[in-house]
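Journal club prep — side note

Before the paper discussion, L.F. wants everyone to see what a predicted structure for a comparable chain looks like in token form. Sequence:
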Amino acid sequence: MATTIRTEALPAHKLTLRQRLDLGSGLFPYFLVAPTIIIIALVAAYPIIDSIRLSLLNNPLIPTGSTFVGLRNYIQVIGDPAFRNSVGVTLVFSVVSVALETVVGFGVALLMNKTFPGRGLVRTAILIPFAFPTIVSGMIWTLMFNAQNGVLTYLLQSVHLLGAGDSLLRTPSGVVIAAIVIDVWKTTPFMALLLLAGLQVIPGELYEAASVDGSTRWQQFWTITFPLLRSALLIALLFRLLDALRAFDLFYVLTGGGREIQTLALYSYANMFVGTTFDFAPGVAAAVILFLICAVAGIVTVSFSRISQN
């Protein structure tokens, strides 16, 4: 005789909020970062999109007089010799200053990573230049480069690098050199701090094993330190390169906002807000070009970072 077993369906388990959001599709992490994405879209994406729109108009601040002109503002800016000169100044300043900061910061980070008496005091003291605002640093160094009583001008004149009564800030190339010196002095501690953080996560056992195998310090640097520090180095380069490309305040202090020597950011500012001619739209176009240069630099650096991780 067959026995029939009756089973009752169990009540469905009530899904939690996380389970309803996830549902096996991995949407929950996106839900968590959604507020951040919304804030970034409001404070960053919208101004960028609106700037691109303004750069395509003529007289964009006059509602009744603005007309769509396409790429005319970009063509006008690119054809301006002052703009091309500002691109050269920006690239030279960025490449040279970031390269020097990387080399010097690497050496400082290796020094601070060693154990020696007073290491904490040295780490604190070496960060002091980075604590100064750029405006303050620029004013201090401007006084030292003063033609009448600047201490650095006096030293340069003493070794005959400058003539009597001359100053480094009187020529465009001298302004760029002065800006590089100031930026390296101020921002090298930042680079050293980021690299020091990368050095401190490298296991000491790797160096001990390499020493047992007879590796020299130079071999340990190229086979252990540099490969394991590559990601931190690229991140540091990304931060510093983007900051150098948009240099504004330092050159503004050194030149007083003059048009003789300008970075891209200073050129854009001068066209939008300085002078008797109303060139707001070309100034915005220059700012958009600067944004595109920074975006390309960021994409290239991030691509190298991903390659190094693989």
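L.F.'s comment for the group: The chain has 14 helices and two strands. Keep this in mind when we get to the figures.
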